[in-house]
Amino acid sequence: MFQRIVVPLDGSCLAEGALPHxxxxxxxxxxxxxxxxxxxxxxxxxxxxxADPVAWDAMQAxxxxxxxxxxxxxxxxxxxxxxxxxxxxxxxQIINYTRGDGHTLLVMxxxxxxxxxxxxxxxxxxxxxxxxxxxxxxxxxxSDQCNPIKETHYNKVTVPLDGSSRSECVLxxxxxxxxxxxxxxxxxxxxxxxxxHYQVARDDPRLGIVKELEAEFRTRIEDxxxxxxxxxxxEGLRVxxxxxxxxxxxxxxxxxxxxxxxxxVIMAAHGKSCVSHWPLGALPLNALVYGETPLMVIQDLEPHxxxxxxxxxxxxxxxxx
Length: 321
Hints:
By secondary structure, this protein is α/β, with parallel strands linked by helices. It folds into 2 domains: about 150 residues, HUPs (Rossmann fold), CATH 3.40.50.620; about 150 residues, Rossmann fold. Helix content is about 40%, strand content about 20%. It contains 11 helices and 11 strands. Strands 1, 2, 3, 4, 5, 6, 7, 8, 9, 10 and 11 form an 11-stranded mixed sheet that branches. α5 links the parallel β5 and β6. α4 packs parallel to α5. The model has no long low-confidence stretch (mean pLDDT about 90).
């Protein structure tokens, strides 16, 4: 399980949108909560420290005071938070810090001090999540209004499963969150349409065989979800399940999530078709970039198991290390 939850804050109300979720997770998972703030060298942006040591000391003091004020507000809710200030590039510092101390859950918003934009993800969130190679919860930042800090509540948690043991790595966390929130667990799975995949025409005499195979696969996954659901119900959880046959697994997943009005989606970073040198499989990557619901992805690989991207290799060569 996680040894700590790390929440990067930049002083904006948007970034603080991660705190209600962090409170819930910290209590549910009974773990440490760490608030961090990164100060970057001045170059015309926000929260960048100037070359003048006196001015930098003042900015660092302001950052510590800000984190202390947030920690005080959390303490009023019965939660003790640790704080840390870091210096350097925000993405590099977030990555290094989250990797530096055992199993970490990174909780952050899609946008921060740069403000809401037409991009689904801000640059810091995008780069940090894709390159940190740790489990994360991404909160969609939809309002820049500052609200009082209070614990969020999940009424329904959606869990996509594909029958693989990798996809099931989320279940211990799902159980703990469901107990803490007394929420419904919605198990979903999609059977790819074989007729669509293999482009079988409606007048093709083999279409009947294809439909029989689809029905067989659907029955298998329904039985699988029933077994998982019964196991969770035996633990006292409320569980429902849904299986569908669709041309597009990704499109079906989002349609089922919207229809179910889910408060949180929890999925594994990889499933049965795992490509182990990529940090995220196709479904979680699509959910990260285009999703509308808070998304938790549990990384089933260790950072050293994930290969460097072409860009990361080129950068290392250019930097000489």
